[in-house]
Design brief:
Helix content of chain A: 25-40%
CATH class of the largest domain in chain B: Mainly Alpha
Structural class of chain A: alpha/beta
Helix content of chain B: over 70%
Shape of chain A: globular
Order of helices and strands of chain A: HHEEHEEEHEEEHEHE
Oligomer: heterodimer
CATH topology of chain A: Rossmann fold
Largest sheet of chain A: 8 strands, mixed
Strand order of the largest sheet of chain A: 3-4-2-5-6-7-8-10
Largest interface: A-B, 43 and 51 residues
CATH architecture of the largest domain in chain B: Alpha Horseshoe
Number of helices of chain B: 13
Number of strands of chain A: 10
Strand content of chain B: under 5%
Structural class of chain B: mainly alpha
Shape of chain B: elongated
CATH class of chain A: Alpha Beta
Radius of gyration of chain A: 21 Å
CATH topology of the largest domain in chain B: Serine Threonine Protein Phosphatase 5, Tetratricopeptide repeat
Radius of gyration of chain B: 28 Å
Distance between the termini of chain B: 54 Å
Number of helices of chain A: 6
CATH architecture of chain A: 3-Layer(aba) Sandwich
Number of strands of chain B: 0
Largest sheet of chain B: none
Amino acid sequence: MSSRLKISFLLGIIIFLSSSSIVSQPDVNKESRMKLQGIYLYSFAKNVYWPSAYSTGDFTIGIYGSKDLFDQLNTNFKGKMTGSQKIVFDFYESTSDISDCHMLFIAKEETSTISKVKKVLDEKTLLVTELKDISNSSSSMINFVYVQSRLKFQLNKSEAEKNNFKIGQTLTKLAYSTI
Amino acid sequence: MSFFKNILSTVLILGVFSNMLSQSTYCPEKMLLLQKYKSKAYENAREYIDTVLSQCPDQNQDPYFWHVCGFINKDIFEFIENKEPGAVSMANATDCFIKSLNLDVEKKYFDLNNKLLDYFSTFYYNDAVKILQKFDVKNQDNAIAYYNSFKKLKRIAHPDYDFSDKEVDFYFGIGMLYKMRYEKDKANNKSLLDSCINYFNKSLAIDPHQYSSNYNIGILYHNLGVDIIMEELDIDADLEMVILMQEQAVEYFSKSLPYLKKVYQMKPQEVSIVQGIAAVYYSLNDMEKHVEYMNLLKELESKSGE
């Protein structure tokens, strides 16, 4: 009888402790998603070649619509370089805030504003989006897409090349699809 | 324990007479051993066991002799070693009682030997459980050894004993110790993960509906998925590596889901489970399901706030 009591007590303690040590909060999952997106954006910066006119000074990555991603990038990628350029990050709350940047990421929530955004962009900006499918957009150059739970990217090579961007071989090889 | 004491007094008296009457070879050393034991010179008596065996080798085949040796060690365990977990005297005592049991064809000491083996099985069991209760990870191997001793003795004392309930809890407890060791230093203790999951699964093999093992495997797989991205994936990693690690993470998230769903069926009101499932769906980018469980979570939280 005493042994039976002991095991119940054991389970009681363990269940209490295990319940109180859950790591599975949505915040952590969100952070890991942001980290993945950040690594991809950083890879795009390293594997897309801008016209030489834009290869001096800081390399600016603008984030529109996702403060979480901006914070993640600003924390984890601060001081990173692409070639000889130091990468800096900018966050834009509205289309009117968007300014001169090498790469602009438009979060899914702001997808409807793409055409408006496109109007304020200059030709040095590589546009990265989160559309359901890149073939529905003529403006996006790189698009994040989830395929069977995996974050992948699609390339709109013709649109990128129209603006004199050269997409590196690694990106071409690893893209989920290219148009 | 006065029960064992009274019985032993009877056994000692009977044993002395039977020894004097029935043994073909008179063994004065054995008489001396009994005297030492009766006068509570337990350690002295224990040391004298080898003398008896060397002077009277036929005692090796005497169930009574081994029965008494068992008592000598039992009393050392109780009165000198203060029932210390894993005490050598306990192992010696059980060895002696088992020998006595095996030699006792007339079953003169059968009941008492069995009762004593059962008595020690409880000590082994409780010592194993104590280690689990204290999360004493340093003594994890001892917990397993004690538990195995418990099973061995219990099987002798009660051949039909059903270990299922205890196995389910014990394997889960050992799984938890492995989990704790792993989580203390994830980078260096990754090898412990397999053992951890293995023990949880051993528990589930006996009882597939055991809540705690299902819950912990579910959370563990989920956390492994998160850790691959958050801890192991270097921000400078090349894209091939990113894709590979993402693949592993998704695999872990996918493995996590059936366990968490199972415990959800058992405890649909448990906030941490709903939170866990919502998190897994988020990581698998199944936003429809994520929102569904987040809404459930809100409902639960608002109910608990009422």
